[in-house]
Amino acid sequence: MISEKIKTYDSEDIIIYWKPNNCKHAAECVKGLPSVFNTQKRPWVSPQNATDEKIMEVIDLCPSRALTYEQK
Q1: Cβ(29)–Cβ(12) under 8 Å?
Q2: Does the pLDDT of residue 64 top 80, yes or no?
Q3: Cα separation of 39 and 45, whole Å?
Q4: Alpha helices in 1-72, H assignment, sequence order
Q5: Do residues 56 and 33 touch, judged by C-beta distance below 8 A?
Q6: How many whole angstroms separate alpha carbon 70 and alpha carbon 2?
Q7: How far, in whole angstroms, is CA 25 from its chain's centroid?
Q8: Please, how many CA atoms are within 13 Å of residue 29, restricted to the half-sphere of its CB?
Q9: In angstroms, rounded to a whole number, what is the distance separating the alpha carbons of residues 26 and 23?
Q10: Strands, E assignment, 1-72
Q11: Model pTM score
Q12: Which residues pair with 16 in a beta bridge?
C-alpha cells in the first residue's frame, strides 16, 4: 500500500493541507496569492500573510485539489 504524503501549514484559524503527489503545478496558488504561496521560501506556505478568506478563495481555484483547507 502506498501512503499518501500530506503536509500541513496552520495559522490561528485555518489548516492548509498540501498533497505534493497530487500537485500538477498549475501555479494558481502562486499566481493568486504570492505572499502566502512562495516556492522560493521554506516553508513555501505562510498562512499568516493573508486573511483566511483570501486563502480559501485561492485554494478553491486549485485544479488538482492538491491544496485543501479546514477552518479551525
Answers
A1: no
A2: yes
A3: 8
A4: 28-32, 52-59
A5: no
A6: 24
A7: 12
A8: 27
A9: 8
A10: 7-10, 14-18, 67-71
A11: 0.91
A12: 9, 69
